[in-house]
């Protein structure tokens, strides 16, 4: 029985892992222009903070968080958080806090590289995932 060449296995792993980073090349959701459906009614001035910015860990725009996840993370974690190359995230909030998830997004974990999302996008995704219990 012949052994499967290690270089083929290594090459396949590189291709699979690089797919996790491909979401960053997809179209991002439009920037918040204060036309957000979750914004308070009757106040259209530009000084109103965007509703997508997490405040205290739980205030975020779920639709934007889901779009960010699908554009940046679903290639490894599945469209419905079911897991694929990366782990299942359907109940990740029962295992990790928002800060833990944010740390994983920033620094990576296991085969996942850090920095695939950053700034407000990482905060939004971390808040959204922390609610998955």
UniProtKB/TrEMBL annotation:
Residues 25-50 have a biased composition (Low complexity). GO terms for cellular component: membrane. Binds 1 heme c group covalently per subunit. It comes from Brevibacillus fulvus. Keywords: Electron transport, Heme, Iron, Metal-binding, Signal, Transport. The keyword Glycoprotein does not apply. PROSITE patterns: CYTC (PS51007), PROKAR_LIPOPROTEIN (PS51257). One of its GO terms (molecular function) is heme binding. It comes from the Bacteria. Residues 23-59 are annotated as: Disordered. InterPro entries: Cyt_c-like_dom, Cyt_c-like_dom_sf, Cyt_c_BACSU-c550-type, Cytochro_C551, Cytochrome_c550/c551-like. Heme c binds at residues 73, 76-77, 112. It holds the Pfam family Cytochrome_CBB3. Gene3D superfamilies: Cytochrome c-like domain (1.10.760.10). Residues 1-21 form the signal peptide. Residues 60-133 form the Cytochrome c domain. This is Cytochrome c551.
């Amino acid at each position: 029985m012949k052994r499967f060449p290690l270089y083929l296995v290594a090459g396949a792993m590189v291709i699979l892992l690089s797919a996790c980073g491909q979401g960053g090349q997809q179209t991002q959701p439009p920037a918040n222009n204060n036309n957000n459906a979750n914004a308070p009614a009757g106040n259209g001035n530009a000084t109103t903070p965007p509703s997508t910015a997490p405040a205290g860990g739980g205030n975020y725009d779920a639709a934007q968080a889901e779009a960010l996840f699908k554009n940046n993370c679903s290639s490894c974690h599945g469209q419905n958080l079911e897991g694929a190359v990366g782990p299942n995230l359907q109940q990740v909030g029962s295992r990790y806090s928002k800060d833990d998830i944010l740390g994983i997004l920033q620094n990576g974990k296991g085969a996942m590289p850090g920095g695939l999302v950053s700034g407000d996008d990482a905060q939004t995704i971390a808040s959204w995932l922390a609610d998955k219990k």
